[in-house]
Amino acid sequence: MIDPDSVGVADLEVDPYPIYAHLRQHAPVSHVPALDVWMVTRWADVESALNDPERFPAHVADSPTDDALGGISMMTTDGEPAKQRRRPFDSTLRPRAVEASMPEVFEQLCSDALDILETAGGGDLLTQYFEPISVLSLAHAMGIADRVDGLTLVRWFGGLAAGVSNYEKDPTKTAFCSAVSDEIDDVVRPLFEQAFASPDDSMISNLVHATAGTLDERIAWAMPSLKLVLLGGLQEPAHGGATIAHCLLTHTEQLDAVISDADLVAAAVEEGLRWTAPIGNLLRGVAPGTTLGDAKLPRDARVILVVSSANRDREVWGPTADDFDIFRPRRTHLSFAAGPHYCIGHHFARVQLRTAIRMLFERFPRLRLDPLHEVVYRGHEYRSPTSLAVEVG
Ligand code: HEM
Questions:
Q1: Domain count along the chain
Q2: Ligand 1: which residue has its CA nearest to atom 7?
Q3: 114, 251, 277, 328 from 255: Cα distances, Å
Q4: Which of 185, 187, 199, 273 is the most buried (most CB within 10 A)?
Q5: What pLDDT shows up at residue 142?
């Protein structure tokens, strides 16, 4: 019997799934003191809350995300202010735009990383394959690929991520995030200046012309959402890729099926993202008087909508919900959320991951895990293998 009062962060980091299974059954909306949040773990509750911003608003008082990104972004507000901030990214990230401009970029980046792995006879797929593809393809889409290298982007991600999760107001994390933020400002400001003077069809030009005011006012308005896109786009596809590759490498019949029928790659990508959601928890506020299931949520409560738990809910996914199975009947998962904050980069991530998985196993059909390295998953808010050492050839 797991008591929500005794759920600890360390246990969640190691393996949150048994805890979620228990909470879904016995306490589906429960206060977890260790995180000082209400945890919502059943599919039906998570899905309905995501689609109900009136009762579960995205804006949360004293938000570390707003502090870290320098103000309100599309993700921490609702309604028209959120739509205004989201719209400028559409022309780069909507599915048709991604299909038109990104496949060749993804293929080139995959091919370059595969060459390096082949020469080395193997390596860590997380840091030497999925991460470079993820960060460099986003830099390309943002129009900053000629100004920053992959390692800088990974460091930027680290600083922003430290800031948005800094609920405890740790001064070291604050300093790291603020140094990275200044660095990002220095790199992108000249691009804003240029696009302000001569508009083009780039993401930054769309952003600077999406609002009125002086250049400084426009930059201040746009920058939190730009940094949010950096944050969302840098880590999650890489985490998802490592999980999907690991699942295939440990389910060889399914891998063989994927290798002989490339049409199954998309199913493998979706199933891997369902099985372990790269982002497990989505934070929301609570409107006064809100109830969910049997729980009456107190004023100023914070809830986390645990999409990773919803994705394993047996009421929806049946008795095999905990298994990785690319042949399960297709239905949508919640790893890209639902409702007004549905991930704006979902198609970008999907095409990137399908390309990376397909090309990985096309190049190395006999790829195998390095027996000297154990694969360990960590995290509950962000979860993936910590590394994925493989041998090729
Ligand atoms: C497998 C990869 C990815 C996963 C699992 C993922 C997951 C998510 C989730 C769960 C949300 C909802 C957050 C919330 O409602 O609180 C979200 C929002 C968002 N994601 Fe992603 N994401 C991925 C890739 C990307 C990429 C590649 C980008 C950028 C190119 C991106 C940019 C964003 C942005 C800007 C939002 C905020 C949208 C809004 O609030 O309107 N994500 N993502």
A1: 1
A2: 336
A3: 19, 6, 20, 15
A4: 273
A5: 94
381 close to ligand 1 (CB < 6 Angstrom)? no
Tokens representing 172? Answer: 């070291």
The CATH number for 282's domain is 1.10.630.10
pLDDT of residue 1: 66
**Residues in the chain, overall count:** 393
3-state SS class at 60: coil
Cβ–Cβ < 8 Å for 326, 257: yes
Report, as an integer, the average pLDDT of 323-334. Answer: 97
* Nearest CA, atom 32, ligand 1: 232
Reading the block at residue 164, the tokens are: 């948005």
Q: Is the CB of 272 under 6 A from ligand 1?
A: no
Q: Which atom of ligand 1 lies at the shortest distance from residue 86's CA?
A: 41
Condensed to tens digits (0 to 9), the pLDDT of residues 196-240 reads 999 999 999 999 999 999 999 999 999 999 999 999 898 899 999
Q: Which tokens in the block code for residue 23?
A: 């909470």
Instruction: pLDDT band for 103, please (50, 70, 90 cuts).
Output: very high
275 in contact with ligand 1, CB cutoff 6 A: no
CA-to-CA distance for 321 and 327, rounded, in angstroms?
12
DSSP string, 273-313: HHHS-SB-EEEE---TT-EETTEEPPTT--EEEEHHHHTT-
**Could you list the residue range(s) of the whole structural domain that residue 128 is in?**
4-364+373-391
What rounded mean pLDDT belongs to the chain?
Answer: 95
Q: What number is the average pLDDT over the span 360-382?
A: 96
Site to probe by mutation for ligand 1, drawn from 137, 343, 382 as the one with most ligand atoms within 8 Å of Cβ, is 343
- AA identity, residue 168: E
Is residue 325 within 8 Å of residue 317, measured between CB atoms?
no
Count H helices and E strands in the chain, helices first: 18, 11
> If you take atom 16 of ligand 1, which residue's CA is the nearest one?
282
Distance CA(378)–CA(68), nearest Å, equals 24
**Confidence band, pLDDT 50/70/90 cuts, at residue 109:** very high
